[in-house]
Structures are given as structure tokens and as C-alpha cells.
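User: For my dataset I need records formatted as: sequence, then C-alpha cells, nothing else. Please produce one.
Assistant:
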Amino acid sequence: MTELETAAVVFLCLLAATGLGVIVRPLLPEEHKAHETVQLLKLVVGMLVTFAALVLGLLTASSKTVFDTTTADIRTYAAELIQLDNSLREYGTDADVPRHILRAYTAAAIASTWSQEPPPAGDYYQKTLVPGYGTDNLDSRVLGAMLERAQRYTRELQPPDAFHQKLAEEALGRFDRVIQQRWKIVEEARGSASSPFDRILVFWLLVIFLCFGLIAPRNALAMVTITLGALSIASAVLVILDLDTPFTGSILVPSQPMRDALSYLNR
């Protein structure tokens, strides 16, 4: 289920809970509609609203942290690719093969991870990865195999002197950092939301809107206000889910750092 579909389900569930409250209220005995009962109901609703607002704020802050961290890590990743290319470039023409693979990897990573954006120009890389073979974002096995192949070619270099030996060792060290950074980003892209916790929050919201249906006056303005409240809650859920999944949805980690790195690699 996509982030938008989840938010739509939450919106409809909140409206359904309100509608249930509206239907149940006329069926309640008169003693359940007494002033003291309504006051108690308002106190409970106020407590739940406070808890829900606090949790929504914490979830928003947590999701924003995940998004900002992933954005920073993408910039670091792009810088690591540039530094790795510099090491291979300085080694000389013997390192052209891993350099070309690294350039093709960067272009393919951009095309597959930000598939809704125009792919990099050129036909030197695989624009369409094999379906069903782990092709989601940077965790694609095809992309991982490209990095490993470039690293293997670097290991097979035969340095003619101590200077080239040092450059080869430096390049291999940078390869290790690039691969580690790649897996760090892959893990961050999976999100940090806890499904049981999310369901508990939705349950609280359902109880709140059920109570709204029980105590709200029967007029159009009250119903419109409750509908707008449900829409606001659903939009907050959408933002939380979008931020928590940095490579899917409408709020995406920018691809510009990777595109800048590719421009440098193409020089």
C-alpha cells in the first residue's frame, strides 16, 4: 500500500468512526446523554487528543530526521564516488576499466532510484534493470554487482612502483567506504516506522472521532469541521510516511548530488 493510499484509508476510517458515533447517539438511553456523562466524555477525548498530538509530533520529528540524514548521506555518497574516481584517474590508463564501470554504475543508480525524473543522458549504462531481481533503489543486486566488478578490476591492477601501489591501496579503501555508505543508505531507505505503534495511534484517533460523532451537534458546520479535521490528520500521516520513506512518495531525497558526481565522472 502506497503512502497516499494509507492516508486515504486513515481518512475514510476516521469519517466512518464519526458516522458510527452519529448513528449510535440516538440509540443510547437518556441517562447516557446526561451532562455529567458528556463532561466525562469530553475529558477522555481531551486526554486522547493530547496523547495523539504528542505522538504525531514525535513521529513527524523522527521521520524528518530520517529524511535529513538520508539526504546528508546521499551527499556524502556522491563525494565518496568523486574521490574514488580521482584515485583511479590518478592511477592512469590501467584503471580506465573500473572508472568506466563506476561511471555506468552512478548513471544507472540515478536512473533506477529516481525513476520519475529524466535519466542521465547517454547509452553507456543500463537504463532498465532486470525486473524482479532486486531493482528497488540503491539496493539493486545489479547495481551491487557493478560496484563489486569495478572493485575486482581494481584489485587485479599490477602497480609498477610504490607510487602506483599506494594509489591502488587508496582506491580499494575508497571502494570499501563507498560500499559501506551504499548499504547505510539502503537501510535508511527502509524507514523507521513501527507498524504496531502506528496501529495504536490510529486506534486512538478512531476513538477520538467516534466521540466527536457522539457529542457533536447535528448541523452541517459541525460535520464539515470534523471532515476537515480528519483530512488534516490524514495529511499529517501522509507527510510522516513520505518523510520516512525518502525514495518513494511525493517527498523525495534530491538526486542533484548524484547528478553532480556523475558530471564530474564524465569529464
